[in-house]
Design a protein that fits this description.
Length: 114
């Protein structure tokens, strides 16, 4: 009896991955093995960078808070220490947003902890 191969399923799998690699450069979009390897590597980067994104945003918030605090005559560490001592629980994301979009509110918080 001849060997039975499910060509419909294997072709569908190839088409699905080649569709996902549309827009890639050169052979990465249309050569099956290259496209598959590129797509798998992309999934690895996506997994890694979902975690890296959180670190990058925290670093950005800290830089923004530090810049705004120095305009008020404090360093970042002094400001955060004073916030902790005063019992003001405000996270870095909100503090950075205030520093950029609402300098008066940020200044009021600095005056309160000074």
């Amino acid at each position: 009896m001849p060997r039975s191969v499910n060509h419909v399923a294997s072709r569908a799998k190839r088409k699905r991955i080649l569709k996902l690699t549309r827009g890639y450069y050169g052979a990465r979009k249309n050569v099956w093995t290259v496209a598959k390897n590129t797509w798998e590597k992309g999934l690895t980067y996506a997994f890694r960078d979902r975690r890296a994104k959180k670190r990058n945003f925290r670093a950005l918030w800290i830089q923004r808070i530090n810049a705004a605090a120095r305009l008020e005559g404090l360093s970042y560490s002094q400001l955060m220490g004073n916030l902790h001592k005063a019992g003001i629980e405000i996270n870095r994301k909100v503090l950075a947003d205030l520093a950029v979009n609402n300098p008066q509110a940020f200044k009021a918080i600095v005056e309160k902890v000074r």
